[in-house]
Write a structure and sequence with these properties.
Two copies of one chain form a homodimer.
Chain A lengths: L13 E6 L4 H16 L3 E6 L2 H7 L6 H4 L1 H18 L14 H9 L6 H13 L8 H10 L4 H8 L2 H16 L7 E4 L2 E4 L4 H7 L6
Parallel strand pairs in A: 1-2
Antiparallel strand pairs in A: 1-3, 3-4
Helix pairs in contact in A: 1-4, 1-6, 5-8, 5-9, 6-7, 7-8
Chain lengths: 210, 210
């Protein structure tokens, strides 16, 4: 992509990445986005949100991959192949979709800190490789500690009323933007749904004047 | 792909292509599959079926793109971008999804004849470019005539009781194979769902001994 100069990302070269740690296709994007975006000189705005309330507002009381047996069976086959293609490890979680409230609150808190990408990859791997309960304080704290971060302090801050409210507000913002699944990417007002559209969304950063 | 010799496709190098003319993502695959398969030395087995009964058996009384407003709005945006990417024309049909019973019966009849790919592209373009009623005898006959085929004779044969029954049986076969949407590809027992997986499915023809 010869239009990608070595310069730092300008405001025009940004992508919003909306994800939930329970979402299997979000896992693929969490593992891929930092490198793919960097290769194109695009900055990532990490936007953790709660997919559960979005599904419930649409009339689904669980993931479509659970509610639709046929699609659910297919999805794990597809995940195996996709992970092989990308060179990403996968163990089908024994609980799906996993609630990840605390992990998401921490991600929201860290969204603009330099550790966000590594933290998100670590949490995703705990869910989709090590099959651990990413909703627990134990797993979230371990993930933070592994990155050399003050886990106790961050977890306490993540559980403050202000931060809890922010996650609810971010989830409402997702709904009002028309988000119906995860991962979802925005480049300006342009929405892209699904890990399969990550490259298209990144390329779109350069496709139109903004 | 250096493993693709110039030889004719062997039985191992075949892909089943399950589609409905009303399905917008099937449109993309109908327009692309012949060239993509030929480039890899893969033969296409065309498998027209009725998506409506599949959706109804899964508990949906219409396309998910109609039932889910948010997803529906997104899908047409996505279609515009995908068509631009592939260089395929698109006019959003005024009726969606369009019933295409007769057109599918003709496709079933022609599935192993040399005109199947060109016929399917023609019908799809009548739906997704020219916004015409592909369920009508008029449009189906025109499509056949355009290919220099005896339209009246083919339409009569397509509407025989035997051929009508075959389409119902093919739709039941789709359900029993676990198909829940279109397009769907099979390489042996391996299922791939969606136009986004066409290349993966074709490449899979060479990925394992069969």
């Amino acid at each position: 992509m010869d239009h990608v100069a070595a310069s730092a990302a300008t405001p025009a070269h940004r992508i919003e990445f909306w994800f939930d740690f329970g979402s299997n296709y979000s896992y693929l994007s969490v593992m891929r986005i930092e490198a793919e975006a960097a290769a194109r000189g695009v900055s990532v705005d990490w936007r953790p949100f709660l997919l559960g309330p979005i599904f419930r507002a649409l009339g689904f009381d669980n993931s479509p991959f659970v509610l639709q047996k046929e699609k659910g069976a297919y999805v794990w086959k597809d995940m195996e192949r996709q992970c092989r293609k990308y060179g990403i490890a996968l163990t089908r979680p024994s609980v799906f979709p996993r609630a990840a409230l605390l992990a998401l609150r921490v991600a929201l808190l860290g969204a603009e800190r330099e550790w966000i990408a590594a933290y998100c990859r670590e949490i995703m791997q705990q869910n989709f490789v090590h099959d651990r309960d990413i909703g627990s304080i134990e797993v979230v704290s371990e993930a933070l500690a592994k990155l050399g971060l003050p886990a106790q302090q961050i977890v306490a801050e993540a559980q403050s009323d202000a931060n809890k409210l922010r996650l609810r507000e971010q989830t409402e913002a997702a709904a009002s933007k028309g988000i119906f699944g995860a991962p979802t990417f925005f480049v300006g007002d342009e929405m892209f749904w699904g890990n399969d559209r990550l490259e298209d969304a990144l390329d779109f950063c350069y496709s139109s004047p903004r």
